Amino acid sequence: MLHFSDLQGSLPGLWEGMKVTLQMLIMAVLGGMILGTLLALARLSHNKVLAALGGAYVTYFRSIPLLMVISWFYFAVPLIIGWVTGTNRPIGAFTSCLVAFTMFEAAYYAEIVRAGIQAISRGQMNAAYALGMTYGQTMRLVVLPQAFRKMTPLLLQQSIILFQDTSLVYAVGVLDFFNVAYSKGNITGELQQYILLAGAVYFVISFSASRLVKHLQKRMTV
Amino acid sequence: MFKLVPAALALAALCSMSLAHAEELTGTLKKVKESGEIVVGVRDSSIPFAYYDNQQKPVGYAMDLAAKIVDNVKKTLNMPNLNVRYNLVTSQTRIPLVTNGTVDFECGSTTNNVERQKQVAFSVGMFEIGTRILVSKKSGIKDFSDLAGKNVVTTAGTTSERLLKAMNVDKKMNMNIISAKDHGESFLMLESGRAVAFMMDDALLAGEMAKAKSPSDWTIVGKPQSYEIYGCSMRREDPQFKKVVDDALKATYKSGEVNKMYTKWFQQPIPPKGLNLNFPMSDELKQLIANPTDKSAEQM
Amino acid sequence: MHYHWDWGVFFKPTGVGSEIYLNWFVSGLMMTLGVALSAWVIALVLGTVLGVMRSLPGKIASRIAGAYVDLFRNVPLLVQLFVWYYVIPDWLPDNLSNWLKQDISPVTNAFITVTVCLGLFTAARVCEQVRTGIQALPKGQSNAGLALGLPLAQVYRHVLLPQAFRIIIPPLTSEFLNIIKNSSVASLVALPELLAQTKQLVDFTANQFEAYTVGTLIYFAVNMLLMFFMRWVEKRLRVPGLIALGGK
């Protein structure tokens, strides 16, 4: 069943694909966490408008399929850009997927960060205020460092899900690991083998990563 | 005197227009000049027109022609170091991606037809095919009429899909038409027995056949349901860029270089499996190369 | 840029019978809901069985369920779908394989494949929720049941599961909404669900912006409606004295 006529020849391409996958993952995780933290702060803010906007953003992105978000960014956004700026500057499949992942995942990271912040006792914030700290200082120096420590495992778990979800870029033709595997299988007429190979690679990576996270979780329990 | 003013204005306008035409870049060329980059839409599995080789480089007959086009763009803009980026497209995404500006032009296996001309512009033709069916030699299927009541696969978003759907209704053939995502998937449907026939452009069928576990089990049959001309697609109403594209292709035809390209991809072993498609040049294609046109086959 | 904005495109005839393009969205949505509901039945049944297995005292049952969860949670859904679609049918006995490939229509084939794939994928998640729900109950409950002389099966059926399910309604709701969203991958194996119909609309009309935007809004609206409905259900079924312990 798992006979490859020329796996050796496909390896460079598969490796290129894996690099694209990892690049996408790392950039989207960083971007998503930053945007997610800002969204969480907005949702917890005393400013009602800001809180409502943050809430609407999170609800919106949690209600639509990631595949739809990716497609919308790839096909519809260039038209908005063209309409506004009057040019035809392409943003490219990679960038448009990256933006889609960042904005989509931010909604999920935001909920994790929000829960993390809410878990920090109110007394700590009051104590910080009593010491004369501003809101920004309280968040930066007191609340967020503890919150992040508590929610690291959850953030990592979400990032593992994102690692798997990056395979959806197949739909818009980014040559990530899965799409390269698919296209190699397609050209050599060995699609089944390459699909199973891709599945095995994703499994090994995600499985080891989630085991590591579990281990970390045990060690980090405060 | 008063009458002269509008006339003078009109003359001035005329002059500036022709000046603009001679000097100022517009549309795609302007964009390419400003961004220092041209984006070429490529297919990943349209053997032997455009697909990826083991080095993950797009190769094929259409890619060789695309390279000629890029060369001419470099020459026209005087930008020898112009950056070339490849962007993967599928038969469903190629037209939206050209119109929304993600790719500047696409060369693969795109049929030039009147309907698509409303959305994109086409270069002069670069290939001509007939739409036929690929079947197993054992199936005994000889023509389209043998397909009644059977599962037939074709690739979504292609002309064959529309022809097949129309034939099904017009001749009450009661076929189950499967629209697969790309040619590779279509062929897999055929090879795995989900369908008994695969309708597509004959040259592409030859390419798919070459991927089979045993290519000699398969054969291309049936009276062509249409003849179609492939062209490179680009944004409409961009005469400056279209001229650069067309000139590049015409020069390649005129110098005879196109024959070498044809032999290389259709009559010699090609990657990745080193198979020879044995697909000699048709009279229709010879005709097209001798008299290049950007009309579709139905307009001829 | 030569893009022709046309928000009226959805009311134009498709050229097939008397349909307008809006009909494609409607039929796509029906297909999405059909696949999601069928898969949900599989996910709930299998997920419950697996969840119970994980909470059992015996090691073997728990390990089997654990391995299932690991496998189905660590392979991307898209890859799982392609395995079900391209690989598994060839492993089936010939007559079943031929039935799947030839006797039934391609849409039915895709429907079955996607339903099984989504059902088994979501079962792994439901399993974890059920386990959490059971473990959230005080240990005394099962002990009390056993002390009353109930066999273990009846303790689960009459004591543990009814309570566990009421506790985990919120996470289960979000899993159901996930199934609806996840079913969009079916567009990649030619099942005419909502996203596939949106793509086809783009293919026919070239109005990509309008089509993708309206498609997105339909998903959004359906999700919101279901969410409000489930909130209402949750309130009515809440176990007095127990707050939602099974959260994500």
From TrEMBL, chain A:
Keyword annotations from UniProtKB, A to Z: Amino-acid transport, Cell membrane, Membrane, Transmembrane, Transmembrane helix, Transport
Topology class, membrane:
Multi-pass membrane protein
> Which Gene Ontology BP terms does the record give?
amino acid transport
GO MF, any single term: transmembrane transporter activity
Q: Which CDD domains match?
A: TM_PBP2
Enumerate the SUPFAM superfamilies for this protein: MetI-like
What Pfam families does the record tag this protein with? BPD_transp_1
Please report the stretch or stretches of sequence annotated as the ABC transmembrane type-1 domain.
Answer: 18-213
Cellular component terms, GO, for this chain's entry?
ATP-binding cassette (ABC) transporter complex
Answer yes or no on keyword Transmembrane. Answer: yes
Location(s), subcellular: Cell inner membrane; Cell membrane
Q: Give the source's domain of life in one word.
A: Bacteria
Transmembrane segment boundaries: 20-42, 63-85, 91-110, 160-182, 194-213
Assembly behavior: The complex is composed of two ATP-binding proteins (GltL), two transmembrane proteins (GltJ and GltK) and a solute-binding protein (GltI).
Chain's role? Part of the ABC transporter complex GltIJKL involved in glutamate and aspartate uptake. Probably responsible for the translocation of the substrate across the membrane.
Q: Which family does it belong to?
A: Belongs to the binding-protein-dependent transport system permease family. HisMQ subfamily.
Indicate what this protein is called per its UniProt record: Glutamate/aspartate import permease protein GltK
TrEMBL record, chain B:
SUPFAM superfamilies on file: Periplasmic binding protein-like II (SSF53850)
Per the database entry, which stretches of residues form a coiled coil?
A: none
* Keywords tagged on the record: Amino-acid transport, Periplasm, Signal, Transport
Q: Where is the signal peptide?
A: 1-22
Q: Which GO terms describe its cellular component?
A: extracellular region; outer membrane-bounded periplasmic space
Where in or outside the cell it occurs: the entry states: Periplasm
Q: Does the keyword Transferase apply?
A: no
Would the keyword Ribonucleoprotein turn up in this protein's UniProt record? no
Give the primary localization class. periplasm
Which protein family is it in? Belongs to the bacterial solute-binding protein 3 family.
- Which NCBIfam families does the annotation name? PRK10797.1
The protein in question is named Glutamate/aspartate transport system substrate-binding protein
UniProtKB/TrEMBL annotation, chain C:
Question: Record's PROSITE patterns?
Answer: ABC_TM1
UniProt keyword list: Cell membrane, Membrane, Transmembrane, Transmembrane helix, Transport
- Which Pfam family, any one, appears in the UniProt record? BPD_transp_1
Write out the transmembrane intervals.
Answer: 20-53, 65-87, 107-127, 209-230
List locations, semicolon-separated: Cell inner membrane; Cell membrane
GO process annotations (BP): amino acid transport
Q: Which GO terms describe its cellular component?
A: ATP-binding cassette (ABC) transporter complex
Membrane topology summary: Multi-pass membrane protein
Is the keyword Transport in the record?
yes
In which broad location class does this protein mainly occur, judging by the first location in its UniProt entry? membrane
Q: Which molecular-function annotation in GO is an example for this chain?
A: transmembrane transporter activity
Domain ABC transmembrane type-1 intervals: 29-230
List the NCBIfam families.
HEQRo_perm_3TM (TIGR01726)
Q: Which family does it belong to?
A: Belongs to the binding-protein-dependent transport system permease family. HisMQ subfamily.
By what name is this protein known? Glutamate/aspartate transport system permease protein
* Source organism (scientific name): Silvimonas terrae
